[in-house]
């Protein structure tokens, strides 16, 4: 088991181990005692036992894409899973076993190319399965296919005591329940996810896009809102405010990505948007041949490496005046690389979820992805996010764990009963707080967990 100790490694070695795989270049000033570079399940078991011997906490890094760098915790042993890559595919059963640091792109590269299958992982290609699925997994076509964690049939877990357990609906049910929506507060370390897969729509993977001047924001947004609830159920719908490049004006971009068995069905599905779209596009395309890999490339372009990020998000109330609530967020971006996103969640948001920790959703998901390069722009960009969210949050029912930072703003992340049950499970399975859990202000939550309450009501 390879370990980088803070007290004995060179500064360069330690710093690389501490934050080398952290996506966000806004590096946290938090310092683990050691970083364990796990390559197998046994390394994870031994790392948890080592933490018990040293009487310190355990943090876990899967993909390193947490915007708030939850894996980097003071006086902890950080288990870095970047070198632990395992994948087994049972194509006839449409099942796979995958280690947490496998990214959506890595997983689907194998599934699509070798088996004509796919898994609705994260849209950003380098998001690891671990954090993504523990947070619920707002993956490809979530509005129709449901949350990615609903496709988790079982998890293998190293508990806070260092025991390796298999958890599903029949055994160790509490940990299985918590693994689907607990986020960074899960009271153990997942070593494998057992996943149910989709067929990959090779011939019917198509997209339509409509780019409007930002002056048409209200009209174009209302059109999207009107057609989403009854739109085809193999099509995901997103609206984005962004600058196409650094020399352009801001635009309002609407994207429809459909995943049908054949091109004819895709064209039929996308025709509704084509026929009803407002006139006045700057650019548009209809039922263009597309692919998962091309979408990953587009997402990578919008979420570049070696940049500074601040994100926040909200599930807006179903009856909110969405264009009015989000107008500032969509028309006043603080940097040419920043963008704001609305993601349609209806009809998934209208059905009863399975019995699992994940329990927060609404028809309207909104997120800010504030991206910039220079440290000198930190105050301006951070203030813009704070100001926008201070106005938006009172129109929300809660937030998604994956795009949140518990240090800067409190919100609701689960239904009240689910939150209470989750915190009880955390205390039962990790009464000493061995697993770091939720990184709130001052990293003080411990076994208590999060309050699960809106900022403005506290």
UniProtKB/TrEMBL annotation:
Signal peptide: none
Keywords: FAD, Flavoprotein, Oxidoreductase
Gene3D superfamilies per record: 3.30.465.10, 3.40.462.20, Uridine Diphospho-n-acetylenolpyruvylglucosamine Reductase, domain 2
Entry cofactors: FAD
Molecular function GO labels: FAD binding; oxidoreductase activity
Pfam families: FAD_binding_4 (PF01565)
Domain FAD-binding PCMH-type: 28-200
Protein name: FAD-binding PCMH-type domain-containing protein
The organism of origin for this protein: Penicillium arizonense
């Amino acid at each position: 088991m390879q370990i980088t100790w803070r007290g004995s490694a060179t500064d360069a070695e330690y710093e690389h181990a501490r934050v080398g795989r952290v996506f966000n270049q806004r590096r946290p000033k938090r310092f683990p005692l050691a970083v364990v570079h796990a390559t197998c399940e046994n390394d994870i078991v031994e790392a948890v036992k080592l933490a018990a011997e040293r009487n310190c906490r355990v943090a876990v890094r899967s993909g390193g894409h947490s915007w708030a760098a939850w894996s980097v915790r003071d006086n902890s042993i950080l288990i870095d899973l970047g070198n632990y890559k395992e994948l087994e595919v049972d194509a006839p059963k449409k099942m796979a076993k995958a280690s947490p640091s496998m990214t959506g792109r890595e997983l689907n590269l194998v599934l699509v190319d070798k088996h004509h299958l796919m898994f609705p992982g994260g849209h950003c290609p380098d998001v690891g399965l671990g954090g993504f699925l523990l947070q619920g997994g707002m993956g490809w076509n979530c509005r129709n296919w449901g949350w990615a964690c609903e496709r988790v049939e079982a998890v293998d877990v190293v508990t806070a005591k260092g025991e390796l357990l298999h958890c599903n609906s029949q055994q160790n049910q509490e940990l299985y329940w918590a693994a689907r929506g607990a986020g960074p507060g899960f009271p153990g370390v997942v070593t494998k996810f057992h996943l149910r897969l989709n067929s990959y729509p090779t011939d019917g993977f198509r997209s339509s896009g409509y780019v409007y001047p930002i002056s048409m924001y209200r009209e174009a947004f209302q059109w999207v809102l009107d057609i989403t609830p009854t739109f085809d159920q193999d099509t995901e719908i997103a609206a984005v405010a962004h600058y196409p490049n650094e020399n352009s004006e801001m635009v309002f971009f609407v994207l429809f990505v459909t995943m049908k068995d054949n091109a004819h069905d895709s064209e039929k599905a996308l025709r509704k948007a084509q026929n009803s779209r407002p006139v006045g596009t700057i650019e548009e395309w209809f039922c263009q041949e597309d692919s998962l890999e091309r979408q990953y490339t587009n997402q990578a372009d919008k979420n570049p490496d070696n940049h500074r990020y601040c994100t926040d998000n909200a599930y807006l109330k179903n009856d909110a005046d969405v264009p009015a609530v989000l107008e500032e967020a969509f028309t006043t971006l603080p940097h040419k690389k920043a963008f704001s996103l609305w993601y349609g969640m209806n009809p998934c948001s209208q059905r009863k979820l399975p019995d699992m920790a994940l329990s927060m959703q609404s028809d309207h998901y909104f997120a800010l992805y504030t991206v910039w390069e220079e440290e000198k722009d930190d105050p301006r960009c951070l203030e813009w996010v704070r100001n926008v969210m201070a106005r938006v949050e009172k129109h929300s029912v809660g937030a998604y764990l994956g795009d949140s930072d518990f240090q800067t703003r409190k919100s609701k992340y689960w239904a009240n009963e689910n939150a209470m049950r989750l915190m009880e499970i955390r205390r039962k399975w990790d009464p000493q707080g061995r697993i770091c859990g939720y990184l709130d202000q001052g990293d003080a939550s411990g076994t208590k967990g999060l309050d699960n309450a809106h900022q403005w009501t506290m």
